[in-house]
Structures are given as structure tokens and as C-alpha cells.
């Protein structure tokens, strides 16, 4: 296996910065879907999730600048806009998205380890820890949604719970 060079890894981290922005955009679309379905709490939850992704991008940006890397912002693709009008399926899509984020972060960590780029460990460990929490949160919400069996009363209770996120 050919080792990735430091500059290549920095470019991959730059790509992750853009992916975090893309993730925020995805969650904005999910929030819009919930708005269309009149689920204010689920909408709020996804708006907060989008905000968190933008914070992650900012964290990557600052780190890259601190190590002297010139950031190259790339085009952000339009998010998926053809979700089923179903709360559960949207949360399942969000979980799959978080699993992709996890895969990408782990790939960066593995590459950093391989080339002994120790300065990036703290940055990436923060996001590995974050991803454990993210996946657990979405998994928990999905479990609760499955228990409701799509009943309006159960969904209304969960919608209220999601509105409490800060």
C-alpha cells in the first residue's frame, strides 16, 4: 500500500470540511421536509443538526489554517429532495449519513496514523468521539419512532421531545 503524503492528507481534511458543509445542507433539507409535514419539533432537531455540522466545518477550517494549509472550497451539491413523507425514513437516512461521516473520519485517522502525522490526532479523535454520540442519538430516535408504529399520538410526543433540543 502506498503511503499518503502529509499534503494529500491535508487536502482530504479540506474535503472533509466541505463534506461537513454538505452535511449541514442535507440536514437543512430534512428540516424543510419536516416543515412541509408540519412536524415543528423534528424540523427544529434537524435545524440544530445542520448548525452543528456548520460548527464542525468551522473547526476543520480553523485547524487547517493553523497548520498553514490554504483551504479550497468546493461546490456543495444539492441535497436529496425526494424523501418519503415519513418521519422514520428521514431519520434512517440521517443515520446512514452519519455512518458515512464516521467512515470518512476513520479513514482520515488511519491515514494520519500511517504517515505518523501526530498533529492531526487530536482533531480527528474529537470527531471520532462525536460520531459515536451522533450515531447513538439517531439510533435511539429510530428505536423510539419504530415503537410508535407510526401512530399520530406517539409521533406527536416525539415531535415535542425533539423541539427541546438546544
TrEMBL record:
Principal subcellular localization: cytoplasm
InterPro entries per the UniProt record, alphabetical: Ferritin, Ferritin-like, Ferritin-like_diiron, Ferritin-like_SF, Ferritin_DPS_dom, Ferritin_prok
Domain of life the protein comes from: Bacteria
EC number: 1.16.3.2
Chain ranges of the Ferritin-like diiron domain: 3-149
GO cellular component, one term: cytosol
GO MF assignments: ferric iron binding; ferrous iron binding; ferroxidase activity
Enzyme class (EC, first level): oxidoreductase
Record-listed Fe cation binding positions: 20, 53, 56, 98, 131
Keywords: Cytoplasm, Iron, Iron storage, Metal-binding, Oxidoreductase
UniProt family annotation: Belongs to the ferritin family. Prokaryotic subfamily.
Its job: Iron-storage protein.
PANTHER family, per database record: BACTERIAL NON-HEME FERRITIN, FERRITIN
This protein's name: Ferritin
Species this chain originates from: Finegoldia magna (strain ATCC 29328 / DSM 20472 / WAL 2508)
Amino acid at each position: 500500500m502506498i503511503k499518503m503524503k502529509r499534503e494529500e492528507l491535508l487536502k482530504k481534511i479540506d474535503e472533509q470540511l466541505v463534506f461537513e458543509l454538505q452535511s449541514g445542507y442535507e440536514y437543512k433539507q430534512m428540516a424543510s421536509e419536516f416543515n412541509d409535514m408540519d412536524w415543528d419539533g423534528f424540523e427544529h432537531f434537524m435545524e440544530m443538526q445542520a448548525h452543528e455540522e456548520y460548527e464542525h466545518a468551522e473547526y476543520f477550517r480553523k485547524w487547517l489554517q493553523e497548520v498553514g494549509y490554504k483551504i479550497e472550497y468546493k461546490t456543495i451539491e444539492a441535497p436529496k429532495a425526494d424523501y418519503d413523507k415519513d418521519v422514520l425514513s428521514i431519520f434512517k437516512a440521517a443515520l446512514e449519513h452519519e455512518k458515512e461521516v464516521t467512515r470518512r473520519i476513520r479513514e482520515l485517522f488511519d491515514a494520519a496514523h500511517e504517515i505518523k502525522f501526530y498533529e492531526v490526532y487530536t482533531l480527528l479523535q474529537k470527531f471520532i468521539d462525536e460520531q459515536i454520540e451522533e450515531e447513538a442519538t439517531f439510533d435511539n430516535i429510530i428505536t423510539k419512532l419504530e415503537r410508535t408504529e407510526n401512530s399520530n399520538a406517539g409521533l406527536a410526543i416525539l415531535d415535542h421531545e425533539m423541539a427541546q433540543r438546544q
